[in-house]
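Final paragraph of the annual report: two paired records, presented back to back.
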Amino acid sequence: MIPKSQIDLAKYRFQEAIEKLESARILLKENYLKDSLSRSYYAMFSAIRALLALEGLDSRKHSGIISLFNQHFIKTMIIDASFGRKLKKAQFSRERSDYGDYVEVTAEEVRNQLKDADNLISEIKRLLVKYTDDF
């Protein structure tokens, strides 16, 4: 039985993921490509943190979250390994677009990452529902 506090935290984080994904869509529509890329990464990141909350896991660092996700969900084949690769690519793209100078991002790159984020969030929702009926 998963404690209610962990379920509540997972719900909160998953809702954040949904909101960030919607923000990414709006930013793409308004042609703010780098910001859209960043928001779609954070949507993925928040969804993963929601999943980890049900396991009572967290980290202060992005690398720690990704490591926990890989250890508990990718290596155990609960989630397809392609999602781990897409997450790592999204993290790289976000860092490049947020911190790099003279970085150009294409609409196609943003659309592809949005699609990856949407697919990962859908997969995580499927698992959250499997873990608990509260989703």
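The closing record of the year follows.
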Amino acid sequence: MKQISVLILENLRSVENTASIFRTADGFKVSKIILIGTTPTPLDRFGRKRQDFAKVSLGAEKIVDWEYKKEIISVLDNLKEDGFQIIALEQTSTSIDLKSLIKPDRFAIIVGNEVTGVSKEAIDASDIVAEIPMLGHKESLNVSVAAGVALFVLS
């Protein structure tokens, strides 16, 4: 069976991080990116192409299917109904090592805000909370880098 993956970007702040994730998603043949809440979209509020977005994504926003939703829970419910395993990429007291996951056929990875991370409601609605083990002094990776690592491990 062909692997199907979705990325959910929850309340990201940075156009550059979001656009970088689009470029990475194309490289891993992600089926769809769902932009939630405050996450920047490839189009401005008037529906015009954002040049700052396109500069970083190098046109991936034209290739990768994407949609915007205001709230995350209905998105997660719909994906679960479609047989997706929901994986929140976050550090919690109960998160497991991302490398220990068995590669699912259908999965959605949630990455969260650059400062506050994945919301509690999204974590609670996830099937798995996984983290990337950090060996150095820093506690986490940039959100766009973390999304790429997660896609690499699960693909």
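Residues 15-27 form the longest helix (13 residues). This concludes the annual technical report; the extension proposal builds directly on these records.
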